[in-house]
């Protein structure tokens, strides 16, 4: 898989998580697992890089 493909897939997953955080009430870890992140620490780090805030802060703001 190319670096571009990995980046695209990661951004797509984060977009799915953002939608779920803004519209649902599932646990953040459950949402991360559903979109393909198996490591919660890695997920949180990637989410913060892409969104600029933590998953919890994003949920609270939306």
Q: Main traits of this protein?
A:
4 helices; 62 residues; Arc Repressor Mutant, subunit A; globular
Question: What is the topological layout?
Answer:
Layout: H1 3-23, H2 28-35, H3 40-51, H4 55-61
Helix pairs in contact: 1-2
> What is the arithmetic mean of pLDDT?
95
Helix content: over 70%
Number of helices: 4
Order of helices and strands: HHHH
Look at the structure and give the CATH class: Mainly Alpha
Derived structural class: mainly alpha
Number of strands: 0
Instruction: Name the CATH superfamily assignment.
Output: Homeodomain-like
Count of separate structural domains: 1
Alpha carbon gap, first and last residue: 34 Å
Major beta sheet summary: none
Multimeric state: single chain
Characterize the overall form.
Answer: globular
Under the CATH scheme, the architecture is Orthogonal Bundle
**Alpha carbon gyration radius:** 11 Å
Unreliable spans: none
Q: What name is given to the CATH topology?
A: Arc Repressor Mutant, subunit A
Sheet-strand content, in percent, reads: under 5%
What does this structure look like?
- The chain has one domain (3-61): Arc Repressor Mutant, subunit A, CATH 1.10.10.
- It has 62 residues and is mainly α.
- The radius of gyration is 11 Å and the shape is globular.
- The protein has helices at residues 3-23, 28-35, 40-51, 55-61.
